[in-house]
């Protein structure tokens, strides 16, 4: 089965409410829809994560696409890394794995969808079979002020989420008020916090001490990821379990994080690893260290939720409260299946490929929004 065309459609998917986190307020999710067409009429669909803006990633994708045309959909492993060496690294940007991975992940992931659809099997079977029938997701608490966040937290507990996840790094007093307010309405829920690299060592130690009475299950990446395992090791003495997010993109970085015992969990998305193969390699390294891996979410749609659900089903050390992002959108791109977790879990689709149907009208509207605004950063 040969690749005949790869279509790229830039999309800007608006959030239903302002998204507050350590780096400010974000209003929309930018993605590039990737559709790999084949000579057998099968179309593999995925999306590339975008950053910092859509246009440079589109330019890289358009440079890469000719390398794939006329080649077999079963050669993704070779084609992706041939292009990395000859089309990317050879131009002097070999250290830019993160940009490469987030850009090219859409093609790698769409090829798995095409293979699954071609043989009539879900992607988890293409990857060797599922270990999980359903995948767990955390309740992602949204809002600006503590009272808004607490009200949403109470609602998520009512909906049956066993784990809640809250963004911090918005100022110490506000952070503490948010956690206090949430604990008042959700005293027993497993609570995870993410400060998105906002704190230096001293501030992190001070904040973790103040947060201890609130029974924090995991503190995610409170210090800059560029500091790697060393930055997390410096705050280990606080005694709060830590997870690594921005510290870790590559399997090599997972190895280092596990080797140094700097993190208790690894948070890693399929766009960050350039797709399913390297995400599973990273998961296997963490498994060898008895460390669980959490499917990271970033600015994305339900397409990525469906992908993570399939690929995540194949690894034994998958976390039970992964990140889910599509619900933040005013309108998702998925027509079916329903991606609303029940008691915090989504079943793993048994349909061919990733098992989703796109809402083409929603895609057209998100493309219109891109053409209108062409930017995702609030001003
Ligand atoms: Mg994070």
From TrEMBL:
Superkingdom of the organism of origin: Bacteria
Acyltransferase recorded as keyword: no
Family of the protein in this entry: Belongs to the mandelate racemase/muconate lactonizing enzyme family.
Protein name (Swiss-Prot/TrEMBL): Mandelate racemase/muconate lactonizing enzyme family protein
Pfam families for the chain: MR_MLE_C, MR_MLE_N
Mandelate racemase/muconate lactonizing enzyme C-terminal domain: residues covered: 146-243
Key words of the record: Metal-binding
